[in-house]
Amino acid sequence: MFNIRHIPLTIITCICLLLAGSVNAQEFDMVIQGGHVIDPKNNIDGIMDVAINDGKIAQVAAKISANKAKTVVDASGLVVTPGILDIHTHNFHGVTGHSLSDGFQGLPTDGFTFRAGVTTVVDVGSSGWKNFPTFKSQTIDRSKTRVLVFLNIVGVGMKGGAHEQDLNDMDAKLTAITAKRYSDYVVGVKVAHYGGPEWEPVERSVKAGTLANIPVMVDFGGVEPELSLETLLMEKLRPGDILTHAFAHVKGRVPIVNENGKLEPFIQEAQKRGIVFDVGHGGGSFLYEQAVPAMKQGFKPNTISTDLHTGSMNGGMKDMANVMSKFLNMEMSLPEVIASSTWISAQVIKRPDLGHLTVGAEADLAIFQLQKGDFGFIDVRKMKMKGSQKLVCELTIRNGQVVYDLNGIASPVWDAK
């Protein structure tokens, strides 16, 4: 029979010390303390702590002991949110074209995401079924940022010019097959830039979306006289499909606010029907003359996004935090802005695993300063709107790892001795 008295005292002492160490071991990789947590999915809007362990959200509570963490981040006075989703970007950067498909206008993700709190981007239509494997190998597989995709209905993607007018290269079946084959990455179908009077590009995109059970995003316009925007929204698209560039006023597309400053009545009806209105700011697709009166008349976008590319990044758009700040200074509250940039966007692309801080979810987070002051925000016609609030990204965490830290709040202090 086993008798503890037969074990030497030194061994018992070592066992006790080991057991004590396991009890007092650090339980979390990181604890973010004292921040204003806004997590729309879980109806959290208040001062909370967030614990991270093994790349997952481990706990969200009013008070989590700092003694249990390897790293403690003091987020007092800051806003803590799920990692931001930007569902309209162009990241198929390369050297074989002069447009957005393996060309010079696309942008590498990691250089333009984390500094704005973005942890997930959705490249919309830069690649089609023919060149998606190239996009995957040279961009998706090499990025720390999570990169998802809307496949262009055009097989070669956004190569510009005649390529995007070729009805013969718009194959719904092959687009759907590719989407289903790469379902971990492909979350939608994109149709854009077609300048003909036919509805075929939209109809083929919707067919592809139906076959693959994914939404369609439409960049609408380009033909005169204009095709009916009401017909598009009320008849051609399905609930859950997306009109991007919601606040644009471009040649070949009816704007949502008419020349009398009134919101077209079918716009809110379409939104009630389930059509998603996405900002898609871009370099030419966001005007205060559209956004301000629309929002004053009760219309707000479902999702906020940038349309990030070389033609927008240095203009009025700048980055996701700047676009979010514009809406914060119009008719949207901070929780609404965060919801439209996280949980709502995640639902639109049918990725309910993203955009929230539920325990067990992948630990993608952003921490923002909400600055108060006298700021200016520019639209695509270089008109300035003054604002008193501005979001600035302080820290970004992707899969539990710090990937951007503006002022070193997650780093130990260097002490010169």
Largest sheet: 8 strands, mixed
The portion of residues forming beta strands comes to 25-35%
Quickly count the helices. 10
Task: Write the element-wise H/E pattern from the N-terminal end onward.
Answer: HEEEEEEEEHEHEHEHEHEHHHHEEE
What does the overall shape look like?
A: globular
What's the total number of strands? 16
CATH superfamily placement of the domain at 82-348: Metal-dependent hydrolases
Low-confidence stretches: 9-24
Q: Calculate the mean pLDDT score and round it.
A: 93
Terminus-to-terminus distance: 59 Å
Radius of gyration based on Cα positions: 24 Å
Structural class: alpha/beta
CATH architecture of the domain at 82-348: Alpha-Beta Barrel
**CATH level 1 class label of the domain at 82-348:** Alpha Beta
CATH topology tier name of the domain at 82-348: TIM Barrel
Fraction in helix: 10-25%
Structure description:
It is built from 10 helices and 16 strands. It is an alpha/beta fold and 417 residues long. The chain has a domain at 82-348: TIM Barrel, CATH 3.20.20. Strands 1, 2, 3, 4, 5, 14, 15 and 16 form an 8-stranded mixed β-sheet that branches. The protein has a 7-stranded parallel β-sheet with strand order 6-8-9-10-11-12-13. Helix 3 (172-181) packs parallel to helix 4 (200-212) and helix 8 runs antiparallel to helix 9. Mean pLDDT is 93; it is low at 9-24.
